[in-house]
Amino acid sequence: MNAPVRSSADSVERAARHGEETGENHRFANSKELGAFLRAHRERRSPGQVGLPDTGRRRTPGLRREEVAALSGVGLAWYTWLEQGRVIPSRKVLEAVARTLGLDAVSHRHVLALSGLLPPAPDGAGHGEVAARVQGLLDTWENSPAVLLDSRFDITAWNDAYAAVWSDPAAIPAGRRNLMWCVAGSPAFRSTLLEWEPVARAVLAHFRGQTARLAGTDRRTREIYATLRADFPELSEWWECQGVGDLTARRVSVLLPRHGGLDLQFSAFRPVDDPEALIVVQAPVGPADRELVSRLVREHRDPGAEVVRIGRERVAPGHPAAAPAKKERSSA
Description:
By secondary structure, the chain is of the alpha+beta class. Helix content is 44%, strand content 10%. Helix 3 crosses helix 5 and helix 9 runs antiparallel to helix 11.
């Protein structure tokens, strides 16, 4: 039996039809992405969470489409089309669906972005100038690894401390010089970062939230996803995951093969002149950690020191990270 339709159904349905009549429901690049996101969250939502009895006799996980439609005040056929990417909802309809699915603030913002109800993301044309200005700031943090990411998580500027601790991004082929790629499979992260998976999943959630709305129209974003799928097939379910989140501050521990343990406090913030960019700073937690980073930086700057840094000796000859790359300070 279908759940009863709310009394606001007529007004919400009219809002949906108004979108079609005024041309707002024109085909758009992220409709499939939006539909997949809503479906994933519908399947995570239990009947009990929306006040429905759970009979335990469901062939599919989560809520049924007709339940979401009824609770959101829209028709079943229209909601089905929404998950199939065939229509674009008005803001009123999307707000109703978001409430039914219990989306948190980050996921709510994500569906608004996918549906084109937030200002479009900047095209990144001025990011090179931002990177040049931010480089000076990064260099002042001599004992705190720091990196600048563009809207696609491509690494566009970094300091010596970052290169000393995590390996020099200049040694990574330009097409793979991306923080998501590095965290997913670079030995500098994966073989030395303790509790690697929780950190990697946090990066993935932010990466997903930031790049999903670009995937339909931006060639570089599509290239990154294709590279991730090709280089790390064992993480295939990650690249299809619909979870999003913010990269909040956290403490991480690293075990260096030749230098022992290192504790860092990760923080992230955005430059005002490029709000789609992200600066990630990793401050040493204590005096011993600060001294260790300082030692690594000295070794990194020593022309006679080994070029290989954390974990690089473990890279197999055929691994993408082992590919030769032109040495350059920044890809900006």
